[in-house]
Amino acid sequence: MAGARLGHRSKGLNMKSSLRIAALTLLSASLAVPVMAQQTGEATYKAKCAMCHGADGTGNTPIGKNMKLRSFKSPEDIKATDAELFKQTKEGVGKMQGYAGKLTDAQIQDVVTYIRTLQK
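Predicted structure:
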């Protein structure tokens, strides 16, 4: 009888351990996704956006100055929602071409996430 109780406790402890491991795994994955998006967004930004907007997002490049680009650190861009920045990137704004068909929605969202890091 005592052995049966011990077996029951052992199964309970194993279940608790399994649940803790699963919870920690999910937590780790949820924390890693934004970091991966930032890294992906950064690579896409450097390849597609930095030429005009500059590595720091201020638009302080020959093309950026010629096109009179506003800095991503401007009050207007800081106040803009992610949806607004997404739409501008996808459809284009002013002289900037849109990236619909050139970047996936996920890539554009990753770039918006990266732009937010430049605003800090």
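Summary: Residues 2-48 form the longest helix (47 residues).
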